[in-house]
């Protein structure tokens, strides 16, 4: 819509894609950290006021803004570790294959959890495995059975620093590995770039890379990979 | 194995992973452009001399080296556009979902074809669509039915320059999009880095990124995504 | 002027280009975020004290400094979203072609608005369109008529993340597209660099790129492109 | 179209956009250096065999491939300095404003000439000025009258090394400056990146930047800016 | 000296180079922003307690730490714009050629002033010229006489954004130009990198580049260039 | 372990490697700055509650978190300069060769001290030498005897800015030099990247490089190099 | 020495460090690929003509230049895989610990071999292990006994692409790992930069990184680490 | 001048700055490697045909093009190591201070020689010192007297790889050091970028940096620094 500059922040400047769930088969998501708290709250209000708009995820949301959203959508679920607010609170009943989520270290947990919450609210069965970095290989090898469980259809691996875990995991399993580099590290990790490059150059095939710290994207992609059947008719 | 430096190039310096097909459920692949012609030929010979070693792909292979491989494995298939030699020549009967491969422009065709040949020899039904770049959107929109065909389970998109096509495609379909940036372009395309970054920052979820010009990896990942059932028991 | 180091911050250290409006045909602009509040206030005061100095824009100005400027130039207009203070408050009557401003997402709105305010105060008719990112192509295609309106002479497109929108728009229209990458995004968006590279590598011709977050520059360039006639005599 | 991998290079893999001239109001262009000679020749043949397909430019074309194109389209014009083949040979009668093209140094001439040929074949009056780099400012100042000629509606500036010329020119004129960085330079010029950054950071507004060495894009954009009237109806 | 880790911050961990003035002919300098306030204060105290240690400059010093230094060396001079404390307060009587310091814009003034104060305390006659950026060339050309004054032996040019001023100045004069890029700018200025590259690629010879924001280094180098005679015997 | 997203921060999400000391022969280390204070405190508590878990180092730990750790492990030693908490407080009796630690300047001291504390708690005799940067070569040459002492088996060199010291030291001694670039510097030091590149390109062999500011890694590597005998049996 | 420009290539322009072996305890090395064939040949001749100059290695030497060197030093040994010529041909009798050299893949073999030859000619016992990349972890785990052999005192790991092997190896052993990234890979491997960053960010301590493709440096460092005793007196 | 595109390579496209010697007091220079052989030859011819145009240097000139120039200007001097052709062959009688040129290693000699030839033809007394890299510090310390000779007014230091030599030299002398990084090195030297950054971050003041491999610029700057008196009147 065309907006007069004098009221550029009027409600009309946000055009929601309420039918996205129907069109693509997945819920809408609102990336919060590049919006003002007021903009996010208005999205939540619009959602509430729409009749049956489909589910929605608010991602990269801080404590304060999450409270604003829950004020508008009181029955939403807030996962502070994942920095996600999901509405409705209850995820749909799981369908399709399982999404296994690995965090190389404790510091990678927030991104891993964002992936897990996303996949769960997109309708997948999920499991989380933590602290299986390649510096102590036995910890990973102890979980081989879980990794190769026939119920698993996609594995998300969140890793920072050297980002080496996805290469190793992809060499051990037959399902796709969704690799999400995290910004964990310092110096020449360059905010996750080192891990990103490691993953793009994986010597094992079967590694799908997403953006640094993009737990939402990783969970979404894993949910699509492990979807029960064919794509929805448009 | 331990090798005396005086004969560091002895045949023993290549250790084939002949059982990889059994272990991971996918054929072995030999990346040729970082090996000497002699090393590649020895791999082919070893393959021939092994009893029932499973299928193999030789990727990023030039005309001359391909001839050497076909000398060792006469019944292999050479696709010069894709720069791939496949053995056996005949791909397995297709199983699972279809892999649709898009090339944004004619110049992206070699990478797209490498993805297609790979997916085909990993046992998938494949289709190719060319010249659907975002500068002429109607060309893409004309193919919407093909993109949304329920038989399609994964879409590979090869694009250089601005690399914008995967974002647009992912917004139109429900299946995962495997985005492979190509080094097509000049100046600030930085050999495919611009397209790579575009894809990593896709504003539409559902985009799985692989390395620049990595048609093999894209086809392999797409074949895994569209695999018929659960992962093989190890 | 030569300044004694002991009083390096004396008023004389700012040399205004009061005749710039006459010389180039466009108002002077003061980039505020690299200046101290005191320096900005002194510029405003000098402007007030000059006889008929022509219009001026204060860009990238925060709330506090804007108040200082309005104290000196009480009849100035402050647009907090665009972070611009314009003097005089009233833009000139529109001349030349229309400048259409597109924001790919809500988060790109501040940069888009800065472009719009600039073009308006340089004497153009302006319109704003928000939330037309390529992930939901129908939103853009719904606005085709507006994009192709013969009154439009230049289109500004503000986009972050994948920065793909200018390529798509340039393929749909005949007028120049001024692409302004925004720093919206995270991880491998590198503060707008990913979007910048996408725009520089646009597969559609007709894309004029300006610096990241440079809404002022985009609006200025669009205003020049859509100027009524020839350049002013010097 | 869908192509069997066995004949991936069949003529069908090139889908021409023969109506582009009608749709956008500008000729189609074929970027040759990322295509095989055979692919380029097939495009030329298709053009010849189409009834009235509108004009076409072959850009970044080497001597050998240009000969192939001229074999298919004998009445095409080849400009070896600009590395362009244009068909038909004769540009349309000039309309709209003049496009002035500046080359900072002799080494920037090929890119400048590519811009000039493009603008001319898009229907503009063009002029070329060479060797006006900022290291000898008097050479530029001697040409002020030409720069400020009211007939000029857009100025293309091709510059490598420090890329400082567009900033200086934009400070002297009222019309838009299309800045095209060239890869001329060595060491920390990084193949034109230094000049590109200089232009993006121009302290003078009114600078529209295109990709490194993108003379075609610069000439196209300048032709659009100096177009006679409004955009064509779609 | 060897320090026990239990008291790693003991005074002994700072080894002053009290004789540097004698050895190289120039005062010692203490870069403050990478040291703790306590470390800087201890340096100042050591200086005071040494008998005749020669002059010293404290650079990149904030308000608070400057007060600590002045507490130890009460007769020191603090220039807050330049972020320098000089001891003794009075610079030596000027010798050698004049150092002319140019700031492209008001925002470059702190770095320019740091260069000026440094050169002055190294014993040079200095002059400052502000707001002579290339976007308004007449401002620079108005000062040509000052630039070409035979008394001037070195010119420091501080510039951010496009960093184009040193190229232009070096083309106008015969003396060396010390170019100091500043971090003024945003987006693709990359904290001064764009200006740094411009200066390294100057198309005019005679440009000596120093690190971004290194006003101290620029002033020191200019003072050495304009030194009265030969180097001191060691 | 698998964790329900509702309690993703439960104690189980940290899997300690209590036997690492036995397995690799060196203590476990906990990188604190990427963990929440609560996570670090839980690690400390787990350590206390484990029977005989072996020594542990908490690195990159701030004042507040160090207090939390000391609350759980009251007999731990806190070195605020090195930002390390070590448990037990007393290092083991020194074995093997001496580790000499050099800090180019005072600002490099925290990283140098982190290396020293690490090597000491891994069982080495350590010495510290400060302020021996290459700008005043005599300071280094005065310490030659200490550098070449036969007791020294590894030398850690911490340096920022130009990072030139390791090259010079490696040319003077026969033992390995562990080079740790620090983020000390500004502008084109790029947070330690300049020093890192200098060290990787050392014209003297015998330089082992670790990550920027990685004092822990430098000290650990030096302790391994100077270990008394062969590696422990696994 | 001072050279007249007219004969800048005279023999005097190469100043050999014939006593380096005595001073540092290790042979001199001549990096050949940045020298002209004539310069390398003159070095070899000077070596021959010097009385007892100590051993020398010619590294990064091509076939043709190696022949020139062997013409001057007929009893030298040429290893074409490692691109090294060693004189004298026979390495000294091994002393100190063993240096184990790992090549992740066949393509990393030349760099691994350069390290091995270097360590051998510096007087170490050496072993080579090939094709143990992390994509097939069982290949590495099969060699654990060799890796943990008490005779091994340093392990060189050469790896390109994801560069993940050193992290994994360092987690399995107690001795230092010398990690040498190779330029094997394509696209976002950036000529070895991806592997380099992975190694610098290793989540396992004990990794000493050297420059990309620097097999000589890796072998030299490993030989120093595994040296029998203390450093030579200077 | 304005050129018809049909003859864009006509002689008129090169505008010589024949009076540059008079204006700036230094000879004109022609950078040859970005020009065609024909363009360079035409410059030489124009020079010959001009009456008394002042001296000229042709830099970065290959063997073949040098012969073309000498055909036009038979009395020119060609220095193949420096890749320079100078006309007239005889440099002017030396005036001002001496320029001392240091090459860290033999591979840096071409760049050092280019600096030396340039300074000599700009009228300075010059000396060359080779192979004084910091890996063997005694070689540099042996030349201290030459470095500190009162006749020396500027020192050029050419160094690749770690680029550490200028920092060390600047700490030993009182005159300005002109640091020219060379592209000598491999891997993470990034074609001279590592050396460039080292020099920009020199911990010793007094270092003037020029572009990578810019021997001409280094020699020119050094000649200006050591010029006999004040700048020429304009």
UniProtKB/TrEMBL annotation, chains A, B, C, D, E, F, G, H:
Q: Which residues cross the membrane?
A: none
What is the name listed in the Swiss-Prot or TrEMBL entry for this protein?
Answer: Circadian phase modifier
Q: Name one GO biological process term.
A: 'de novo' IMP biosynthetic process
Q: Which Gene3D superfamilies match?
A: 3.40.50.1970
Xref: InterPro entries: P2CMN_synthase_LarB, PurE_dom
Q: Name one Pfam family in it.
A: AIRC
Q: Which organism is it from?
A: Serinicoccus hydrothermalis
Q: Which residues form the PurE domain?
A: 97-231
The record's GO molecular-function terms, alphabetically, read: hydrolase activity
Highest rank taxon of the organism: Bacteria
């Amino acid at each position: 819509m065309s907006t007069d500059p004098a009221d550029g922040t009027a409600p009309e400047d946000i055009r929601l894609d309420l039918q996205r769930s129907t069109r693509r088969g997945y819920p809408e998501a609102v990336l919060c950290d590049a919006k003002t708290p007021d903009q996010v709250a208005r999205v939540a209000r619009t959602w509430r006021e729409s009749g049956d708009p489909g589910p929605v995820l608010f991602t990269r949301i801080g404590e304060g803004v999450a409270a604003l959203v829950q004020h508008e959508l009181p029955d939403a679920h807030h996962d502070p570790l994942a920095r996600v607010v999901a509405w409705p609170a209850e995820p749909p009943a799981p369908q399709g294959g399982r999404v296994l989520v690995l965090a190389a270290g404790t510091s990678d947990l927030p991104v891993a959890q964002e992936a897990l919450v996303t996949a769960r609210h997109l309708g997948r069965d999920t499991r989380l495995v933590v602290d299986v970095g390649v510096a102590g290989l036995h910890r990973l090898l102890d979980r081989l059975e879980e990794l190769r469980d026939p119920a698993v259809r996609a594995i998300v691996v969140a890793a920072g620093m050297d980002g080496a875990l996805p290469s190793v995991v992809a060499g051990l399993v037959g399902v796709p590995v969704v690799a999400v580099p995290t910004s964990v590290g310092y110096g020449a990790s360059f905010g996750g770039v080192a891990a990103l490059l490691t993953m793009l150059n994986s010597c094992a095939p079967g590694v799908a890379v997403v953006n640094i710290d993009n737990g939402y994207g990783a969970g979404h992609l894993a949910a699509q990979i492990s979807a029960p059947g064919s794509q929805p008719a448009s």
